[in-house]
Amino acid sequence: MKAEQRKALEKNELADKLNKALSNISATSPNANRVWVIALCVFVAGIAWYLYSSYSTNRDAANWSNLEFAGDDKSLQKIVEDAPGTIQAQIARFHIARIKVQEATGQLAAQTGDERGTAADKLETVRKTYGELAQASGLPSPLVQEAMLERAKIEEILASVPKADNATVMRGSLDQASKYYAEVATRFGKTFIGEYAAKRVERLKTKKDEIEKLYNELAKDHAKTLPEVSTPSLPALPLTPSPTLPPVPESPASIPPPAPPK
Q1: Global confidence as pTM
Q2: Which of 132, 155, 143 is nearest to 188 (CA)?
């Protein structure tokens, strides 16, 4: 009898332990709630990451497409505004800078000082843009080289352009341009651009007096209004009467045959 009671007690203890274990993982227990909450969070995070990845891929493809079909600086600027910080926006800034440099360098030789001043303002803006692009992360090496070299070239050009409010102070500096060239030569010495920059540093060093003299002369002419260049008109040619052509002889078929002798 005692043995049966002992077995019954052991059975009850085992049942109690099972009930406690089941209660720990039941839907109403705190531990189970934590497990379910963690599992749900992991599941939601996985779905969110999948959706974000799909969205990022689609957005990236759309940005490349917009860049491919951008036909003017306005559409390029829209990419910069709509997708800031992306590689497509940085490349769009490169395209805008190239357009502005081409426009401004042509306008530096414009007729009036105001037009040349506007061109110089534009070059200063582009110089700043290239400085920012030179420091941007994730850009391919050729674009970094271009940004650094163009900044140096614009700095050199502006060394011959006085400020709008002070004609004795230039917008650029040959010394600063030489430093920019030296940075390119040091960082990309084995490339074509690096070798070009190194040669420019050497020229600015050995021909500095000659270059400064030339740029000072250009600076003096910057604010002047150039005389209009008129194309001389050619003298009118005298009118000559057209020659009178001799009458065309009649064809043999139209000449009547001679009369027979009588």
Answers
A1: 0.65
A2: 143
